[in-house]
From TrEMBL:
It comes from Sarocladium strictum. The keyword Repeat does not apply. One of its GO terms (molecular function) is oxidoreductase activity. InterPro entries: NAD(P)-bd_dom_sf (IPR036291), Sc_DH/Rdtase_CS (IPR020904), SDR_fam (IPR002347). PROSITE patterns: ADH_SHORT. Belongs to the short-chain dehydrogenases/reductases (SDR) family. Keywords: NADP, Oxidoreductase. This is Uncharacterized protein. It comes from the Eukaryota.
Length: 264
């Protein structure tokens, strides 16, 4: 990642990102740090989180290092405690919230007939519930200041539709609805809410679990851009949506999929 667009409005902003140690989240952490924002990120993987911080420190000496807080976002008590700590440390201010985190289990990839109540709850909690409740914890501070941007993480999985991950696809479809509702609920107080819907993205996890040669060949049959999307390409859209350059953009779910399903 070399040249990036600089958004002056993001300088010194307090940015909270979930799932920031790897993949799209890590790309977003780097981009916001390079805007000279004050970045705090949550993740369950302390080893990867600390490796990211070390890499950013060595690669960008003049860029402020992000702060890492270890957190399992499915643990709502811990999630709320992290939110309160970030707010307290920044005079009650979070300017940008990126609800990026996602988790999976062996049952995530299973047909509907094999979904159990326990696996259903896990996938909903790992893909949807934490986005709703972290927004609940952070939005009041934004509304009181009549300023803020929330970016949720959706997916095109429900648009394909990806029948092999029915609960995940259901949760990600719900992100679109949640985004629209919150955009109207919070918009009266100057807070914008958007989501991004990535397609096949070459994160480490996707390369290990999904992006086989066969899957990539299937994707390229319908994707307009004949290559796999990189995490930074999704993160750049998040960065734009967080900035004042997107001051009139809210309530949308923005597809970043190389033209696989296309329209938002």
């Amino acid at each position: 990642m070399t040249d990036i667009t600089i958004y002056p409005s993001l300088r010194d902003k307090v940015v909270l990102i979930t799932g920031g140690a790897d993949g799209i989240g890590a790309a977003a952490v780097e981009l916001f740090c390079r805007q000279h924002a004050k970045v705090v990120f949550l993740d369950i993987d302390a080893e990867r989180a600390n490796a990211l911080i070390d890499r950013l420190k060595s690669s960008f000496e003049s860029v402020p290092a992000p702060q890492f807080m270890e957190c399992d976002v499915t643990d709502l008590d811990r999630l709320k405690a992290c939110a309160e700590e970030v707010l307290q440390a920044n005079d009650g201010r979070v300017d940008v919230l990126v609800n990026n985190a996602f988790g999976s289990s062996p049952k995530t990839k299973a047909p509907t007939s094999e979904v159990t109540p326990e696996s259903f709850d896990f996938d909903i909690n790992a893909s949807l519930r934490h986005q709703f409740f972290l927004t609940q914890y952070i939005a009041p501070s934004m509304r009181s200041r009549r300023s803020g941007s929330i970016v949720n993480m959706g997916s095109i999985s429900w648009r394909i539709p990806a029948t092999d991950v029915p609960v995940y696809s259901t949760a990600k479809a719900a992100v679109l609805g949640m985004t629209r509702v919150h955009a109207h609920e919070f918009g009266v107080d100057g807070v914008r809410v958007n989501s991004v819907m990535p397609g096949s993205t070459a994160t480490r996890r996707q390369r290990e679990l999904v992006l086989t040669k066969e899957y990539e060949a299937m994707t390229m049959q319908t994707q307009a851009i004949k290559r796999v999307i990189e995490p930074v390409e999704v993160a750049r859209v998040i960065l734009f949506l967080a900035s004042d350059d997107a001051s009139a953009v809210t309530g949308g779910s923005h597809v970043v999929d190389g033209g696989w399903v296309g329209d938002s």
